[in-house]
Amino acid sequence: MTTFTRRKALALLGGSAAAAGLASPALASNRKITVGALRFTSHSGSFIGFERGYFADAGLDVEFKFFQAATPMAVAIASGDVDYAVTAMSGGLVSLADKGAVKVIGGALSEEVGIDGQKFLVSDAAYQAGVTSPAQLAGKSYGITSAGSSFHYMGSKMAQAEGIELKFKPLQKVGAIIGALKSGQIDAWSIVPHLAKPLAGSGKVHIIGNVSDYLPNYQVTTVFTSAKNASGEQQMTRDFLAGYSKGVSDYNSTMIDKAHGDAGVEELVDLIHKYVYADRPREKAAKSIINGTMRLNEGAAMNTASLQDQLSWFQSEGLVDQSISLDTVIDPSYVQTLG
Fold first, then answer.
1. Any coiled-coil ranges, and where (predicted)?
2. Fewer beta carbons within 10 angstroms: which end of the chain, N or C?
């Protein structure tokens, strides 16, 4: 198998831009691993797994490495800088999988009917000019981190459904997109509710639609690792998924099902606040954390129908090779598959 340095992985990505079934945790061995994450509520499974000792119980000594976009995380997995991560399936990730560098091993965040999900947003300037629904975005600028990102996919699928064209603007980082949207340098974007709702509350941005109206069963993010770990470190991978899945179960039961009442929600908000909106006072961060609650896949089950749709879209856009099959991208042996 090809060995990927960070430089090789970056070079490859530059070209690409033209729990059911989980084993019981191993006895504690204190094996050190690095987990990639974004400071989003959708990564709470990892945060809870760490803070409540579920990874430690599985024999893993976890260190987090934080990112601001999906593609750099895929590079880090391919080069060995990170062992496991949760992120959206991107064109870069698919191309790295095609080269034998990474594998998707589970599902994380999903759109689900009845649960408030990702939003389409517009700048105040666009809203005041009459853009009050996604159908009215024809010819407007739409922020994405990079070509082949989840933002690109969501915007494109919405535009296809509405029969319109968008002007996609790659801005590399989520923070840069937020700044451009608030200042009116771009017209629109889509993002998870814990970011969308506070932005809308500022008056500089407005919510005009739901991603779930266009992608009702969208597998928003996945759990992935290096192909080397997936095939050669099976016990460590099962241990990671076991600890992560316990964190996910706590998150869903507490934040969505309210199985532990208001006290349980407050306790988990305190935990998540260490990682999400940590620079804000707790009382201000709490509302955004709660508003951002979306279902995480129990047992890291993955929706393969949604992942196939994403792969087909990458191919239709010329972002990845037409010969790539979903089996090249995923290793379905660790978790339940849906769809």
1. none
2. N
Rg of the chain on CA atoms, in Å = 19
CATH number for the domain harbouring residue 271? 3.40.190.10
The helix, strand and coil proportions of the chain, stated in percent and rounded to the nearest 5, come to 45, 20, 35
283-297 tens-digit pLDDT: 999 988 998 888 899
Task: List strands edge to edge, sheet with 31-37.
Answer: 60-66, 31-37, 84-87, 222-226, 102-107
| Amino acid, res. 280 | R
One domain for residues 233 and 101: yes
Q: Are 76 and 187 in contact (CB under 8 A)?
A: no
**Whole-angstrom Cα distance, residue 186 to residue 204?**
12
Give the Cα separation of 228 and 21 in Å (integer): 20
Residue type, 224: F
Q: Does residue 112 sit in helix, strand or coil?
A: coil
The confidence band for 159, taking pLDDT boundaries of 50, 70 and 90, is very high
Distance CA 109, CA 114 (A): 15
Q: Concatenate the DSSP letters of all residues of 264-298 into one string.
A: HHHHHHHHHTTTSSTTS-HHHHHHHHHHT--PBPG
pLDDT of residue 11 exceeding 60: no
- Number of domains composing the chain: 2
| 306-330 tens-digit pLDDT | 999 999 999 999 999 999 999 999 9
Task: Characterize the bridge pairing of strands 302-303 and 337-338.
Answer: parallel
Q: 124: buried, middle or exposed (CB in 10 Å: 19+, 13-18, 0-12)?
A: middle
pTM score: 0.84
CA distances from 134 to 67, 122, 131, 196 (A): 29, 9, 8, 15
CB atoms < 10 A from the CB of 277, how many? 22
Q: Last residue of a domain, which of 155, 190, 213?
A: 213
